[in-house]
């Protein structure tokens, strides 16, 4: 791999013996503080990963899989992790779960830690900040199996498993149209994630097919990185929609948090759903039936996404061939119809 170094490389670069380098990295009392600092700084700067090498040499395989998700609070993520756990346990692999909190910097730190810890492969659902996949790509090029799940990106060539977000949004929009709604707004995230663009494109495609105009003022984005900001953006968006001269009669929301919070905010602001405005959203919450009114949802096969992604990764780990044909697997979403999109009289 082009961006990690060996003990020998460090010794040569710093003009010290291999034994001095090794003792410095192991914090030996025989070595001066200055030398230790010099060695550690160099090792960190050049991605020296000691545990990984020691482990790899000793065991060959660690039977562990690193999993990086954006957040563990998310109901959808929990269901995917359940699927990952199920597939991994079946094959006697342990999983090490880390969260990026939507930060590219933290995501990279998670991957570095997992790699240094000697995992056999990495499953990752990228943070919304992540645009640069070169670090992950270099790990993959060095032979570490990588599978992207849920949030897929065109920025890296690898195996990918997710939901068919385009069709999910298309089906949701068609469901609204067939129930008599003609002015459909779309609340999305302010990210460049594939899921956001695919859902937007599915919504646009349905409008086009049913000869309804796409209105730019009906598309609003919310900041997804911070809960307070998300709530503020959502409230502002709903007030904006309802102040329009020709206001929407339905909203399609694109993520778990946006969908559930949008329903709560509409209720808080005193709007009747679906009489004043209908609502359909991407969410896997088990509480959809208990909401007021029960929420029509685009349900994603979260457990199956996790299970399939983990099975794919394990088969890559256990395969002998080094040249994989990369494949992208998209699973179908389902519309679960409830009172929030009742047909218009």
UniProtKB/TrEMBL annotation:
Per its record, what are the GO molecular function terms? DNA-binding transcription factor activity; transcription cis-regulatory region binding
Keyword list, A-Z: DNA-binding, Transcription, Transcription regulation
Where's the HTH lacI-type domain? 5-59
Which top-level group of life is the source organism from?
Bacteria
A Pfam family the protein falls into: Peripla_BP_3
**Annotated PANTHER family:** LACI-RELATED TRANSCRIPTIONAL REPRESSOR, TRANSCRIPTION REGULATOR, MEMBER OF GALR FAMILY
Name of the protein: LacI family transcriptional regulator
């Amino acid at each position: 791999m082009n961006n990690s170094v060996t003990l020998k490389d460090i010794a040569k670069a710093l003009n010290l013996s291999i034994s001095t380098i090794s003792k410095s990295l192991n914090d030996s009392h025989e070595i001066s503080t200055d030398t230790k600092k010099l060695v550690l700084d160099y090792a960190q700067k050049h991605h020296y990963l000691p545990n990984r090498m020691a482990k790899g040499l000793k065991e060959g395989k660690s039977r562990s899989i690193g999993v990086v998700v954006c957040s563990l609070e998310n109901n959808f993520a929990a269901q995917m992790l359940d699927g990952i756990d199920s597939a991994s346990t079946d094959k006697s692999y342990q999983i090490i779960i880390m969260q990026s909190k939507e930060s590219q910097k933290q995501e990279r730190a998670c991957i570095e830690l997992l790699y240094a810890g000697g995992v056999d492969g990495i499953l990752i659902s990228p943070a919304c900040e992540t645009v640069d996949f070169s670090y992950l790509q270099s790990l993959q090029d060095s032979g570490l199996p990588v599978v992207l799940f849920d949030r897929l990106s065109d920025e890296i060539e690898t195996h990918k498993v997710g939901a068919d977000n385009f069709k999910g949004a298309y089906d949701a929009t068609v469901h609204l149209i067939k129930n008599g709604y003609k002015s459909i707004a779309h609340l999305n995230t302010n990210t460049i994630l594939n899921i956001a663009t695919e859902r937007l494109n599915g919504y646009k495609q349905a409008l086009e097919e049913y000869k309804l105009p796409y209105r730019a003022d009906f598309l609003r984005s919310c900041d997804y990185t911070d809960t307070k900001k998300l709530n503020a953006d959502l409230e502002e968006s709903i007030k904006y929609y309802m102040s329009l001269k020709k206001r929407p009669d339905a909203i399609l929301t694109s993520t778990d948090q946006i969908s559930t919070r949008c329903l709560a905010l509409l209720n808080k602001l005193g709007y009747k759903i679906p009489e004043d405005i209908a609502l359909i959203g991407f969410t896997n919450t088990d509480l959809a039936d208990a909401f007021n009114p029960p929420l029509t949802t685009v349900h994603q096969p979260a457990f199956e996404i996790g299970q399939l992604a983990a099975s794919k990764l394990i088969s890559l780990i256990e395969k002998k061939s080094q040249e994989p044909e990369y494949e992208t697997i998209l699973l179908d979403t389902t519309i679960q119809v409830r009172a929030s999109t009742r047909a218009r009289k």
